[in-house]
Amino acid sequence: MAAPRTKTPVPDWIQNPYPHVEHSIVSFPEKYILLVTINRPAYMNCLPVEATIELGALWKWYDAEPELRCAVFTGAGQKAFCAGMDLKQRLDILQTDDVAFEYPSGGFGGMSNRTGKKPIIVACNGHAHGGGFEIVLNSDVIFASPNADFRLPEVQRGVSALAGALPRCMMLFGNHRTMDLALTGRLLTVQEAVVWGLVKEIVPQEKLLSRAISYAREIASLSPDSVIISRLGAREAWETGVSRATMRGQELYAEAMLRSVNAAEGLAAYREKREPRWLPSYL
């Protein structure tokens, strides 16, 4: 459940209304800049399937809106940017055999496998775990608060990070650092993330959003065409390799993993706040 949402008036320089969102707040801090805030602080800003579908539509609207040039993405509160997928909802889907609505083409949060046209700057105001880390890995520039940290905890839950994180980590960090993160589910501290080249700056919590908006203003002051073309030109090698690897991972492994007894056990243990009791793998 999202926190109460207040709808910001749409400025007159926006040509088309943005899609309806229930789990995020959309605002316009100044001309040319979009600010999107995940609004589930009581749940560490984790995203149910519906929130990901909303964000997928919102980012497509952003790319198509002529006067928007740069976006900033953050989370409500001071504890988490995004703690990933709503695992309790995912367990319900597995146990009831309900239909899980298909994620948008951009992946988790509409972003984990997004190419898009325009840049998205992340103001990471706390934990970015699981899908939240997958979003961060595919954003364009990251500013982070001192309490931010990053994690792929999927091996602790009986699932795997197949929304783009694994091949992106491999390209960004190399084999051994990726294996360290992916095979243990350990925390990557914000200080390590700076050393690894992931985070641009560590900014005090109270100044984080204003710093990200200031940076977005700098980008928005430049040629919109040049920004779009330069971004896509730089991402070309990334996209031809990472996107295909992500799709192959989903095609080969995702369904078998989610139908395994260990996926149900890992998600149930998370909900029940206990240690999982793993069973032998039959994959």
Automatic annotation (TrEMBL):
Signal peptide per UniProt: none
Keyword tags: Lyase
Protein name: Carnitinyl-CoA dehydratase
InterPro entries: ClpP/crotonase-like_dom_sf, Enoyl-CoA_hydra/iso, Enoyl-CoA_hydra_C
SUPFAM superfamilies documented for this protein: ClpP/crotonase (SSF52096)
Pfam families per the UniProt record, alphabetical: ECH_1 (PF00378)
